[in-house]
Amino acid sequence: MADQTILALDLGTQTGWALRDREGLINSGTQSFRPQRFEGGGMRYLRFKRWLSELHQAVGDIHAVYFEEVRRHAGVDAAHVYGGLLATLTSWCEHHNIPYQGVPVGTIKKHATGKGNAGKTEVIAAMCSRGHDVVDDNQADALALLHWAVETQDTHEAEV
Question: What residues pair up with 20 in beta bridges, in sequence order?
Answer without folding.
Answer: 6, 26
